[in-house]
Amino acid sequence: MKSSNSTSAFGKMLCSVFGHRYRTSKKITPHITEYRCKVCNCETTTTVSGKLDVLTPELKEINQTLADFYRRRHSLQTVA
Ligand SMILES: [Zn+2]
Questions:
Q1: Tens-digit pLDDT profile for residues 47-79
Q2: What is the value of pTM for the model shown?
Q3: Separation in Å, CA 14 to CA 9, 30, 54, 57
């Protein structure tokens, strides 16, 4: 069985014309948030420098580390 990914390809085309429709997918810290485009499912993240960047596996790993670090430092409050 091969799962078709045509929605994503079509979404990418739409996004290249209309721009991405980002929704917050994960809150890393109050300053860093991961976003996912609800049309093409691409992911971006705010980086430590405050700009939006494509969520690469490397950045994902960094964010995971940051999230763990942040949670540990603020262990009294849960970051939802
Ligand atoms: Zn998109």
A1: 888 899 999 999 999 999 999 999 998 886 555
A2: 0.76
A3: 9, 30, 18, 24
